[in-house]
Amino acid sequence: MSSHRHPPGSFEPPRQAREVSDGIYAYIQPDGSWWINNTGFLVGRRGVISVDACATQRRTQAYLDTIATVTDQPVRTLVNTHHHGDHTFGNYLFPTATIVGYEGIREGIAAWGAPRDLPLWTPVDWGDIELEPPFLTFTETIKLYVDDLETQVQYIGTPAHTTNDSVLWVPDRRVLFSGDVIFNGGTPFLVQGSVSGMLVALARIRELNPEVIVPGHGPVTDPAIVERLEGYVRFVQDVAARGRAAGLTPLETAREVDLGEYADLLDSERIVGNLHRAYAELDGLPPGGPINLQAAIADMIAFNGGQPLSCYA
Predict the structure, then answer these.
(1) What's the pTM?
(2) What is the full DSSP assignment across 208-259?
């Protein structure tokens, strides 16, 4: 079942950001569950780089208002770490920004389309969302500068959370904005990416050796999170192998499994979607290959007692 650590009233958009390095801010939205993502921004003398937008008009406007408490400079560049709407639906509220993303992100945004909730998620006040995909795409790495400070937007190298994941790395400060390659306190979601690929992506983050990680969801963290996430991914692989060998469906396997040390992660119904992906990879599907997303989500809802998944965005 979906789980939350505090009541819905505490999910209001924050009004301040945390400075994680000089001029580099993390905008952390509790509690990081469905559609409640993190963003961040880097401030220069002539403008701001934003890492991602938010899911709703209200949340994105609150984020922009927070940036305005730090600087009067405009957001000149908006980096989308991947195509999911919690990171891109608010793009249209950045009229002064060049929007940047990895190759394929435009197709991902178009394929998902406009926001929707019921019968998948509990009702959400999205606002007047206009889809605004990146209009500058790259294939490996692109460098962006905040005054003289170099940042690198890097493709993670493999399908992982999605097929178009990128991170923003600030090498001189050892600060990493990881997008949804890193969930801190929430269940990773691999249904549109790759289970095996996520292990490759996490190894790449370890190689960068960041000191500070701003995850896509959950509190600011450090490299210790990588080992915990690797453990979860291997757990999914092991559960999938045993379930498939027993002739069980992903949903049947999820209903029988003891989540153990991962039971405290938010949105535990994602185990079902992750098992759909893991089963497909056991059957030979390459990382990022298409699976039946509708069937995976339907099984997550069934795992959730037939109720829409809880969303407080």
Answers:
(1) 0.96
(2) H--SEEEEEESS-B-THHHHHHHHHHHHHHHHHHHHHHTT--HHHHHHH---
